[in-house]
Amino acid sequence: MHAGASHECRVSLTFIHSEDVTQENVRETLQNCSGILVAPGFGHRGIEGKLVTIQYAREQKIPFLGICLGMQCAVIEFAQNVLNFQHAHSTEMNRKTPYPVIDIMAEQKNIADTGSTMRLGGFVCEIKKRTLAHKIYQTESIIERHRHRYEFNNAYLQNFENAGMIASGRNPQTNLVEIVEIPQHPFFIGVQFHPEYKSTVVKPHPIFEAFIKAALVHQKL
What is the phi-psi region of residue 91: left when phi exceeds 0, alpha when psi lies from -120 to 50, beta otherwise? Predict the structure, then answer.
């Protein structure tokens, strides 16, 4: 809504429960969407529907924004359907996955009592030049707020980048991937952080502004 105001347009939201999305109905369910956002969350519920949704957005060139778990699902979907890593997943949902493309942070592995032990608060992210993220932020260093325990597994980063999904933002201290995108897609970006925490009516977050702009362009096609 903040971004819609800045673009002088009314954003019409359609809330879709991911448990209701299947390969059989995804086109019918999403065909009228000008942009698709997969929101944050926890746990395995509705994950398959999110993966199907992201695959549809990726293949049909619909503007896509994934936030936190939404970004992680974008990574999982790409691993399964582009890299052909059968049963690739997050260890949050599948501890026995042969391809843990999303894994718990190393410093979190021996923590039994979760909650405030998650990665919380603002962290620096360095943005790669000549990327969608750099175009959106117009700077090479940002600070965004986090709330999670699982991360992109850097052991697979080269596989992803060779296949077309790049890491356009990383934490300079830990080298953790904060932003992924697909340069060959009109607008496909996933962020590990929570841009909604810093967005206001007076100052909409640039990622939401860029997402709505991309949706407006797609709507006219």
Answer: alpha
